[in-house]
Amino acid sequence: MLLALATGAEIEAHLERSKTVVIPIGSNEQHGPTGLLGTDWLCPEIIAHEAQKTSDLLITPTFNIGMAQHHLDFPGTIALRPSTFMAAIGDWARSLAHHGFTRLYFLNGHGGNVATIEAAFSEMYAEASFAGRERGFACRLRNWWDLKGVMPLASRLFPTGHGSHATPSEIAVTQWAYPDSIKSANYAPQIAPTGPIREARDFRARYADGRMGSDPGQASPEKGGELVAKAVEGLIADVAAFSAA
Ligand code: NI
Questions:
Q1: CATH architecture assignment, domain 3-244
Q2: Rounded to the nearest whole angstrom, what is the distance from the C-alpha of residue 153 to the centroid of ligand 1?
Q3: Cα(245)–Cα(164) distance, rounded to whole angstroms?
Q4: Residue 52 C-alpha to ligand 1 middle, in angstroms?
Q5: In this predicted model, what pLDDT tens digit does every residue of 2-14 receive, in sequence order?
Q6: Which residues have C-beta under 5 Å from ligand 1, the single-atom ion?
Q7: Which tens digits make up the pLDDT trace of 31-65?
Q8: Ligand 1 centroid vs 167 CA: distance in angstroms?
Q9: 242 C-alpha to center of ligand 1: Å?
């Protein structure tokens, strides 16, 4: 069930069955010459929305702006500084906890978000500890590519040029869901360079077209469909395990 298309009464009924909620979370940032700006929030959203068609999962609206300061020299990128991001994650989580959700599962689509999301969890756990709250509240962060079976499949589909930003995997997932928005370009070099992530000026100087280590030319909607199917399977199993733990 999608929270945005449900009523308050339906959420109340859901809470009778389950205290778990899934929050797709990502970032709106440049993804090279052919990747969509929404790639990092679209991927977890696509997977979560697909999973709720066959499983009793409740999916919140997508948290679609994240920690993307290093991409700011590319137009279209929208970023939250880590302190703002942490504060916003905290209030999303507190709102859901207020209704009685005790298992908050964040399905993430952006590596740059990880440190801040984990810090936001630590902040909330500290609040519970200092307030001496009863046990039972838990958060989980899972990157969609870390769901069971996804990386082995990605390695089979893209043995070289997978990289870490504007990867053929993530671009394939968006191509599967949004075939009308598939773009093409000539990549030079075919496989982008790799290196550190610092601030925006440095990022653009190192990665001229925005990619890191990737050759997105290998993406196809068919490969995206395979990745989504594997991720959906992994997500349903992982959420069930988290709900029971
Ligand atoms: Ni990405």
A1: 3-Layer(aba) Sandwich (3.40)
A2: 17
A3: 31
A4: 23
A5: 999 999 999 999 9
A6: 39-40, 170
A7: 999 999 999 999 999 999 999 999 999 999 999 99
A8: 7
A9: 25
Q: What is the whole-number distance in angstroms between the Cα of residue 199 and the centre of ligand 1?
A: 17
Q: Give, as one character, the DSSP assignment of residue 105.
A: E
Q: What's the whole-model pTM score?
A: 0.98
Find the 127 Cα to ligand 1 centroid distance in Å: 32
Burial 164-194 (b: 16+ CB within 10 A, else e): ebbbbbbbbbbbbbeeeeeeeeebeeebbee
> In b/e form, how buried is each residue of 101-119, taking b as 16+ CB within 10 angstroms?
bbbbbbbbbbbbbeebbee
Distance 9 CA to ligand 1 centre (A): 36
Question: What is the domain partition of the chain in residue ranges?
Answer: 3-244
